[in-house]
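Work Package 4 report. The design task specified in the project plan requires that, given a folded chain encoded as C-alpha cells, an amino acid be chosen for each position. We show below one input record used in the internal validation round.
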C-alpha cells in the first residue's frame, strides 16, 4: 500500500534536496492535487494498484473537466514525474506511463508582448496609485526578460545603475546570472528608488515593494499586470509576466542579438530552449533572406 500523500511528501523532499525552485515544487503540487481529486472520486487509494488503463481514465477525466490541451499536458507531465520517482525509489513496480501518449500541443506559440502593448502599459501606469514602481517593474521586466519570481526577488544591491546590470541571485535551478538593461529602464528604476520606494522597515532590502512597504510577490506582479491590461484595454494573456519575457526575447532577436547571448540572458540551461523564440520571427527571417540569400549572390 502506497498512498499519494506519502509519495508526494517523499518527492518534495527529493526535489528540495536537488535544489529545485519553488516554482517547480508548485508545479508538482498542482499535478498531484489533480491526481488526488481523481483518485478520491473513483475510490482509489493505493498507487501500487494503478495501471496504464487507469492513467488513460485519468487523462479522459482531465479532458472532460474542461482542461485545455496545454493544461492536460502539464498535469500529466507532473504526475508522470511523480510516479517515475516512485519507480526509481522501488516503491512502485513498473512505469505505468511507459506507453501513454501525452496530448498534442497547439502549434501556435503563446503570446509575446508587442512594443505597442508595453507602451500602453507604461501609459496607463502613470494613473495608478504607484506609478513609478509600476513603470519601473514593467520596464525592467521587458528590458531584461526576467521571470516573475526573479523580478520580485531582486534586492536594491542586485541592481547596478551605473553599469546597467542586474544580478539574478536565485534563478531557476538556483543559478546566478547577470543581465544588462538599457538607459530608460535604469532611469525608471532610479526614479522609483529615489521618490516612491518606502520599505516598512530598514532591513527590508527587496527592490519592489507593495503598498504597505513589504516585498512584492509573483502573484502581486500578475495582479498588477492584469490591472494595467484592463485599464489599457489589452488581453491579459498578451502582457502577463511570461508574455513580457517572450516579448523581450523576440525583440532582442529582431534587433540582431544572437541566440547564444539570448540563452545567457534568459538563464536557459540549453540552447534549444532559447531557439524556440525563433518561431515568432518568420517575416523577419524572410526579410533577412531577401538581403542575404546565398543563391541571389552567386
Amino acid at each position: 500500500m502506497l498512498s499519494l500523500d506519502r509519495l508526494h511528501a517523499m518527492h518534495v523532499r527529493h526535489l528540495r534536496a536537488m535544489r529545485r525552485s519553488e516554482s517547480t515544487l508548485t508545479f508538482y503540487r498542482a499535478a498531484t492535487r489533480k491526481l488526488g481529486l481523481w483518485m478520491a472520486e473513483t475510490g482509489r487509494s493505493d498507487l501500487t494498484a494503478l495501471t496504464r488503463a487507469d492513467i488513460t481514465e485519468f487523462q479522459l477525466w482531465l479532458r472532460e473537466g474542461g482542461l485545455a490541451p496545454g493544461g492536460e499536458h502539464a498535469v500529466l507531465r507532473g504526475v508522470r514525474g511523480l510516479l517515475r520517482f516512485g519507480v526509481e525509489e522501488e516503491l512502485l513496480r513498473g512505469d505505468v506511463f511507459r506507453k501513454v501518449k501525452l496530448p498534442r500541443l497547439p502549434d501556435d506559440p503563446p503570446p509575446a508582448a508587442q512594443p505597442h502593448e508595453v507602451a500602453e502599459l507604461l501609459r496607463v501606469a502613470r494613473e495608478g496609485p504607484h506609478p513609478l514602481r509600476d513603470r519601473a517593474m514593467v520596464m525592467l521586466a521587458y528590458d531584461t526578460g526576467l521571470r516573475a519570481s526573479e523580478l520580485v526577488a531582486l534586492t536594491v544591491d542586485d541592481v547596478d545603475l551605473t553599469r546597467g546590470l542586474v544580478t539574478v541571485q536565485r534563478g531557476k535551478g538556483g543559478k546566478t546570472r547577470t543581465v544588462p538593461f538599457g538607459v530608460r529602464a535604469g532611469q525608471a528604476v532610479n526614479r522609483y528608488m529615489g521618490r516612491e520606494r518606502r520599505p516598512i522597515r530598514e532591513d527590508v532590502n527587496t527592490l519592489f515593494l507593495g503598498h504597505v512597504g513589504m516585498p512584492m510577490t509573483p502573484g502581486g506582479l500578475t495582479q498588477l499586470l492584469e490591472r494595467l491590461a484592463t485599464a489599457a484595454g489589452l488581453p491579459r494573456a498578451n502582457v502577463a509576466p511570461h508574455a513580457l519575457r517572450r516579448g523581450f526575447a523576440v525583440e532582442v532577436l529582431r534587433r540582431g542579438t544572437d541566440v547564444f547571448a539570448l540563452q545567457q540572458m534568459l538563464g536557459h540551461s540549453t540552447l534549444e530552449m532559447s531557439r524556440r523564440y525563433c518561431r515568432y520571427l518568420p517575416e523577419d527571417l524572410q526579410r533577412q533572406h531577401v538581403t542575404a540569400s546565398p543563391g541571389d549572390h552567386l
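The chain has a mean pLDDT of 88. Validation will be extended to a larger panel in the next phase.
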